[in-house]
TrEMBL record:
Keyword set, alphabetical order: Cell membrane, G-protein coupled receptor, Membrane, Olfaction, Receptor, Sensory transduction, Transducer, Transmembrane, Transmembrane helix
Organism: Apodemus speciosus
Pfam families registered for this protein in UniProt: 7tm_4 (PF13853)
Predominant subcellular localization, coarse grouping: membrane
UniProt membrane topology term: Multi-pass membrane protein
Stated family: Belongs to the G-protein coupled receptor 1 family.
UniProt-annotated location(s): Cell membrane; Membrane
Nucleus recorded as keyword: no
Positions of the G-protein coupled receptors family 1 profile domain: 1-234
Protein name: Olfactory receptor
InterPro entries in the cross-refs: GPCR_Rhodpsn (IPR000276), GPCR_Rhodpsn_7TM (IPR017452), Olfact_rcpt (IPR000725), OR51/52/56-like (IPR050402)
This protein's record includes keyword RNA-binding: no
Length: 255
């Protein structure tokens, strides 16, 4: 679980470091321009890290499934090497799958307005400015979302169906509560992530006539809310993290 938490924290930190420079540049320094190459690279990292986070949440759901449904085999199934392979697979899926739609952005010609809708570069925002055939760039992300976000969410739901079935079979009410309590943090992070993803997707697909401030607000919520909430959720629910934070704070107060 701690390996997956480390990858999740790194992903959230990467998303923040990727988006905040341009956001602060616009809001604080009034910097309204960004080079084409920097824009495309930012778009690449934004979307790849989003896919990585979805994969990490999926891997964590498998961790909870094994811990509750097959507790006696937990250490033999989730060995250190296997967890490392899972983490590597999640990273490769995120950083490789987003390459095909991003690469064409470098050789498209841009004759439309060069004004973006957000303070950072999103693929769906940038491709609309191109004066070229963007059919592939329209179709590929839809397929990619179906094979990553939608499929990951579906597998997570199924894993919790089996978890609930196993938990309901436990005779002791106290043991049932204890087992479910180990899943609360993960469920909370899943809801925070997928609700913001669905909200932003609906705004882009069906909110063409919505005020521009709604689009801006939803994009900020999507990119800033999960990285802010995930550490809070796990700090509240994980005793080991609580003790480490309290130890760190007490050390600083003594100095």
């Amino acid at each position: 679980m701690y390996y997956f938490l480390a990858v999740l924290a790194s992903t959230d930190l990467g998303m923040t470091l990727t988006t905040m420079p341009t956001v602060l540049g616009v809001l604080v320094l009034n910097q309204r321009e960004i080079a084409h190459g920097a824009c495309f690279i930012q778009s690449y990292f934004i979307h790849s890290l989003a896919i990585v986070e979805s994969g990490v949440l999926l891997a964590m759901s498998y961790d909870r499934f094994v811990a509750i449904c097959k507790p006696l085999h937990y250490n033999s199934i989730l060995t250190n090497s296997r967890v490392m392979k899972m983490a590597l697979g999640v990273l490769l899926r995120g950083f490789v799958s987003i390459v095909p739609p991003i690469l064409p952005l470098f050789w498209f010609s841009y004759c439309h307005s060069h004004v973006l809708s957000h303070a950072f570069c999103l693929h769906q925002d940038v491709m609309k400015l191109a004066c070229a055939d963007i059919t592939f760039n329209r179709v590929y992300p839809v397929v990619l979302v179906a094979l990553t976000f939608f499929l990951d969410a579906l597998i997570i739901v199924f894993s919790y169906v089996f978890i609930l079935k196993t938990v309901m079979g436990i005779a002791s009410g106290e043991e049932r509560t204890k087992a479910l309590n180990t899943c609360v943090s993960h469920i909370s992070c899943v809801l925070v992530f997928y609700i913001t993803v669905i909200g932003l997707s609906f705004i882009h697909r069906f909110g063409r006539h919505a005020p521009h401030v709604v689009h801006i607000t939803m994009s900020y919520v999507y990119f800033l809310f999960p990285p802010f909430m995930n550490p809070v959720i796990y700090s509240i629910k994980t005793k080991q993290i609580q003790r480490s934070v309290l130890r760190l704070l007490s050390r600083h107060s003594r100095t």
